[in-house]
Automatic annotation (TrEMBL):
Region (Disordered): 848-869, 1162-1183
TM spans (from-to): none
Coiled-coil positions: 157-228, 276-303, 486-527
PANTHER family: DOUBLE-STRAND BREAK REPAIR RAD50 ATPASE, PUTATIVE-RELATED
Domain YhaN AAA: 1-208
Entries under InterPro entries matching the protein: P-loop_NTPase, YhaN_AAA
Protein's UniProt name: YhaN AAA domain-containing protein
């Protein structure tokens, strides 16, 4: 499987980006840091195996409206092409199909194409970065050969070691052969202890030991039968595998015989038939192309001969193009000459008309006598403008003087009409106004504060007086307790209250428990007739006393009784024995119940004692609480207060102290109010003395009257000041205007005098003032402008006539050099015709050059095709000679035989794989020998016999299990004592726990054994091939420094690298770079091994050469470039020197840049000849 193109949408830094890939050779993708190399590697991983969830995927877009998507074009090993689309989602995220057919590809089909590979395996084997490579080489330091090969195959060597370690740790936590603290060991020890207790505490009948012995023999028989069953089962499985493998083996032998009959050259390639057909097709195609090229050469020669043109036109091309460019200008000349002549005559007529308007007697040649210097002309113009301005200012200033006189009179009348206020009274009121306002404001604030405080006192007094026995005197504060004292009583009362509640709760709980135990005891006594120990002792005492009496009679130690007297006593003794036995039997049968009855009775006695003790504790706590409350009331008795709870009295104390502070604040504010009232009274008396303030007014009205009076007086004063200032300003303005008028009269006289001096030049025209002189100067300037324009037009007309003559001469010269007969045409027409002829000649000349170049290319192509055709014919002849045939038909027959042989070898390999699957873990050589010597009929007989034997063993096992169950049941019926029952219950519970532990231990041991067997099988089947491949790759990477990788004979499973001079090193002795090269060689060897039997996957490596020096980088790049052509290898890097190194390799090794720019080959820098230094890697070290 090879990537051809990858389109990414909204995946990390790649929003909408396309990546092309080549099918052959090593491919290098270069990008700077953060250009998206790691993102590209991860996108290929998730393309193949699905996007991670967006919530945990660092490459997912931030916007919920955007989704990750990847589209890829792939080429499979068989040459078929398909296109797949991977989208973000939870299910059915892959869709696509084959390009050349309508077959679709879904998740199921895709997994089949991947040959069962998963994302973890791909990430560590095919698509890995420097991090995975470094992790793998670290674990190689202590790895043995099995782990290196098998773990390298898994791609997660460190994971494999961790897996084995975790299995061993979990198994050791469950069981060790000599352990004590492990779960199974501790359970077995406890079961053994309980069985001993069970054996000692049980009351056994006489046959109990026999039953126990039979049970042990049954268990031994079960163990033996199970061992025999396992042996027979393995024998049965072996025969069954032989039965299933025999048809495959027969078919394999047949195919091997068929393969031996297919005789074909061993060196002839398997795909020679396809290559032969391709070569024939190429030869036919080349022959057809050669014929076409011959026809094309003939056509080109004919076209070249038909092209004719005047070459002199080409030689005079620049001159003709210059004439064509000047045609427009010449035509403009012919059009403009009459127009310019008319404009010249119009300028002369207009100049003469203006001159006649000045003086009809003047001529144009007399205009020069009226010319003034530039300074005089400017002076006349400035004097005229200045005179006009001065006259205008004189006329406009007269009404302004009249207006100023009128406004001054009006302002003086207004000033006399304003009333005058007493300045002394105004000053006194202004001085006392602010203090009066502040006093009134402070008085209002103090009265409002006193009112608020009085209201607070009335509101809070009720809560204070509720605990008082007499009226309060606010001048003398009460000696209330401190806050710390109240807090101490509060804490003590809370603690004692909590203790009382807790004690009462425990009393209730104890009482409830006591009632429950009494009910339980009552139920036990009602359900069963229990025999107490006292009753049993009493019955046994009577029995023993009667027996003692009878024994004395029988031994002659007392007087003998008559027979009729002895008989009742013996019967009584017999009844007493039976009664004691019955009572003992009852106690035995109800031993557990009786033990429980006694336990409950003991618990009731304990609870009664506990109940009485807790009741006494509650009484003591209540007395302690009463004493504490008495001490609390004594603290407040000196204040005449009957206290409430400490928490309430603490709040009362704070409220009382606040009221005391409020009363003190009221007295302070009343004291501050007195000076304010005196200040207000003094101001009122001042206003009353002026007799301007109305009687019976409030302080606020008085303050308003003062403000109004002061504003009115201030307004009058400001108005008077303003009027005085305006009068003075108007007077100053009138004086200034008068002075300006006098100055303007003086300026006008100076202007007239200066103008008279300059205008003496116009004396011949009569009296000319300054204004008329300005008009004369303008007219003379206009006349001179018309005369200047007429002179320029005359010069322009002369230049255009000269240009026409020059153009005509140039046309005549070109006609003579080209031998074209165009003399009868006007020059402009002749130039146009020459331009047309030049264009046609250049077109034909260009066509002839194109045909000549095409003839050269076609001729070269013809020669190349003839050489290629000859090469193909030589290749066919070489093949015919190689297989000793004379015709292509015979060569095709040999190719078909080679293809059939190759197909037969593939079928044989498939059958061998099937046979290996059937063989499972059996040793291959012995299994093959068994198949070779197999008798099918005898196999059927042996298999039937083994099956019957297995069924008989199963039946015997069932019988033994049944017998053991019956014996165990009898034994359990005997063990009826309380201790035996309890021990038996614990044993059953422990056996259940033991079963759970064994269920956990079994899979662990099986997994460990399966891993060991898989590793052994992997080593036996592949270790030789893989070691040879690893050695070959490592030798090339290290440039022959290490030539072989072999097992370490001194350490089982060890690994050694053999170098030049038979030097051997362990992985731990290697440098970091060399260990990484070793691990890379192991990966590549496994990739090659894996792809032989499965669909190859694209290999992506992200900056794995960081720790390689320059020489080994180049050597490794050569290994990657020359690797299996069926496997696509893509190398990602951010190091520019690697680009030059890849470019130096032979073959086609494409290089792409992630930023889309072109790849520039680096030129090698010249080496200095003065000093040699050792080679050093141009890429930075990982550490």
């Amino acid at each position: 499987m090879k990537l051809r193109r990858l389109d990414l949408e909204n995946f990390g830094i790649h929003a909408e980006q396309t990546f092309p890939f080549a099918e052959q050779g090593l491919q290098l993708i270069y990008g700077r840091n953060e250009a998206g190399k790691s993102t590209l590697l991860q996108s290929v991983r998730e393309l193949l195996f699905g996007f991670a969830h967006a919530g945990s995927n660092p490459f997912a877009p931030d916007s919920k409206t955007k989704k990750m998507r990847a589209t890829a074009q792939l080429t499979l090993k068989d040459g078929s092409e398909l296109e797949i689309v991977r989208r973000q989602g939870n299910k059915n995220t892959l869709s696509g199909g084959y390009v050349t057919s309508e077959e679709s590809v879904d998740e199921v089909r895709w997994q089949q194409l991947l040959s069962g590979a998963d994302q973890q395996m791909y990430q560590h084997v095919f698509g890995f970065s420097l991090q995975e490579l470094a992790t793998g080489e670290e674990s190689l330091k202590e790895a043995n050969l099995d782990e290196a090969l098998f773990g390298g195959g898994l791609g997660r060597l460190h994971d494999y070691k961790q897996l084995i370690k975790s299995i061993e740790e979990e198994a050791d936590n469950l069981f060790k052969s000599r352990g004590q603290k492990q779960q199974i060991n501790s359970i077995l020890a406890e079961i053994k202890s309980l069985k001993s207790e069970l054996k000692e505490s049980s009351l056994r009948p006489a046959e109990y030991e026999e039953w126990l012995s039979q049970a042990n023999r049954c268990e031994e028989e079960l163990t033996r039968l199970q061992a025999v069953r396992d042996q027979v089962f393995r024998r049965q499985q072996h025969l069954d595998r032989l039965k299933r493998a025999h048809p495959l083996w027969i078919e394999l032998q047949s195919k091997q015989q068929q393969l031996a009959k297919l005789d074909a050259p061993s060196s002839f390639p398997a795909d020679a038939l396809d290559e032969l057909a391709q070569t024939r097709n190429q030869a036919k195609k080349l022959a057809s192309e050669i014929d076409d090229l011959v026809r094309d050469l003939a056509r080109i020669e004919k076209e070249v001969g038909d092209i004719e043109f005047n070459e002199a036109l080409i030689e005079s091309g620049e001159a003709i193009r210059s004439l064509v460019f000047g045609i427009k200008e010449v035509r403009n000349y012919r059009r403009d000459i009459p127009v310019r002549q008319q404009e010249r005559e119009h300028d002369l007529d207009e100049a003469l008309r203006i001159l006649r308007r000045i003086d009809p007697k003047l001529q144009l040649d007399q205009v020069g006598q009226f010319e003034l210097t530039f300074a005089d002309r400017n002076s006349i113009q400035q004097l005229a403008r200045k005179r006009q301005r001065v006259l205008t200012e004189l006329e406009s200033q007269a009404p302004e003087l009249e207006r100023l006189d009128r406004e001054i009179l009006e302002l003086e009348a207004t000033l006399d009409a304003i009333p005058v206020k007493s300045q002394e009274l105004v000053d006194k009121l202004r001085t006392s106004r602010q203090p009066l306002a502040e006093a009134i404001k402070e008085k209002r604030e103090l009265e409002a504060a006193i009112s608020d405080l009085t209201m607070q006192v009335s509101q809070r007094s009720a809560s204070i007086e509720s605990v008082l026995t007499e009226e309060l005197n606010w001048e003398n504060a009460l000696p209330v307790p401190m806050e710390s004292t109240i807090t101490k009583f509060d804490q003590q009362l809370q603690v004692i209250a909590e203790e009382i509640r807790s004690a009462e709760r425990t009393v209730r709980e104890t009482n409830e428990e006591l009632v429950a135990k009494r009910d339980e005891l009552r139920r036990m006594e009602q359900g069963v007739d229990l025999v107490s120990q006292d009753l049993l002792d009493e019955s046994r005492g009577k029995r023993d006393a009667n027996w003692k009496s009878l024994r004395q009679i029988l031994l002659g130690e007392s007087d003998s009784l008559a027979r009729d007297e002895l008989h009742p006593q013996t019967e009584a003794f017999e009844g007493q024995i039976k009664e004691s036995d019955v009572m003992a039997d009852k106690r035995y049968r109800n031993a557990q119940l009786l033990a429980e009855h006694q336990a409950v009775a003991g618990q009731i006695a304990t609870l009664e004692e506990r109940f009485e003790g807790r009741q006494s504790h509650v009484t003591n706590l209540n007395e302690k609480q009463t004493r504490l409350l008495a001490e609390w009331e004594a603290e407040w008795r000196t204040c005449g207060i009957h206290p409430k709870s400490p928490r309430e009295m603490n709040a009362w104390r704070l409220a009382y102290l606040e009221l005391v502070q409020i009363h003190a604040e009221i007295d302070r504010k009343r004291h501050e109010l007195q000076p304010l009232e005196k200040r207000i009274e003094a101001t009122t008396k001042l206003l009353a003395d002026t007799k301007q303030l109305p009687e019976q007014v409030s302080t606020m009205e008085m303050l308003s009257w003062i403000d109004a009076y002061l504003r009115e007086a201030e307004g009058f004063r400001e108005k008077q000041t303003e009027l005085r200032i305006r009068i003075e300003s108007k007077q100053d303005e009138r004086r200034s205007s008068q002075q300006q008028q006098e100055k303007r009269q003086q300026q006008l006289a100076e202007i007239e005098a200066r103008g008279s001096e300059i205008l003496t030049i116009f004396q011949s025209l009569g009296d000319v003032d300054i204004e008329l002189a300005g008009e004369l100067i303008s007219a003379i300037d206009e006349i001179q402008g018309h005369l200047t324009s007429a002179a320029k037009l005359e010069q322009r007309i002369s230049d255009m006539e000269a240009g026409l003559i020059d153009f005509q001469q140039q046309v005549q010269t070109v006609l003579e050099s080209t031998a074209e007969s165009l003399e009868e045409m006007p020059p402009e027409h002749a130039a146009e015709r020459l331009g047309t002829l030049l264009t046609e000649a250049e077109r034909r000349h260009s066509r002839r050059k194109e045909l000549q170049f095409e003839r050269q290319v076609t001729s070269q192509t013809h020669e190349n095709r003839q050489a290629e055709h000859a090469e193909l014919e030589a290749r066919l002849a070489k093949w015919r000679k190689q297989v000793a045939v004379n015709s292509d038909e015979e060569l095709e027959s040999v190719s078909q035989t080679v293809r059939a042989r190759h197909k037969m070898e593939e079928e044989i390999a498939a059958k061998e794989n099937e046979l290996a699957l059937v063989r499972e873990s059996e040793e291959p050589t012995s299994f093959q020998e068994a198949l070779a010597s197999l008798d099918r009929d005898q196999l059927e007989l042996d298999l039937n016999e083994v099956t019957r034997e297995f069924a008989g063993i199963q039946e015997n096992l069932a019988q033994s299990n049944q017998q053991l169950g019956e014996l165990n049941s009898r034994l359990r019926e005997v063990d009826l004592s309380s201790r035996a029952v309890i021990a038996q219950g614990k044993i059953e519970s422990l056996q259940s726990d033991l079963s759970d532990c064994l269920d956990r231990l079994g899979p662990l041991l099986i997994a460990k054994e399966m891993l060991a067997r898989a590793m052994k099988a992997f080593r036996e089947e592949n270790s030789g091939q893989l070691l040879a491949s690893i050695s070959e790759l490592l030798e090339r990477m290290t440039e022959g420094r290490y030539v072989k990788v072999e097992p370490d004979l001194e350490k089982e499973g060890g690994l050694l690298l053999v170098g030049q001079g038979d030097i051997r090193k362990k992985p731990v002795e290697l440098s970091t770079g060399t260990r990484e090269q070793l691990y890379l060689a192991i990966r590549l060897a496994y990739i090659r091994h894996y792809c032989q039997g499965a669909e190859p996957l694209p290999v992506l490596m992200d900056d794995i050469l960081v720790n390689f020096d320059d020489d080994r980088q180049v050597a490794t790049l050569k290994v990657l470039a020359d690797f299996d052509p069926e496997i696509q290898i893509i190398l990602l890097t951010c190091h520019q020197p690697l680009v030059a190194k890849v470019q130096s390799l032979k073959g086609d090794n494409p290089i792409h840049r992630l930023d889309g720019q072109a790849v520039v080959a680096e030129t090698a820098k010249p080496k200095s000849a003065r000093k040699k230094s050792s080679a050093k890697s141009s890429t930075p070290s990982l550490f």
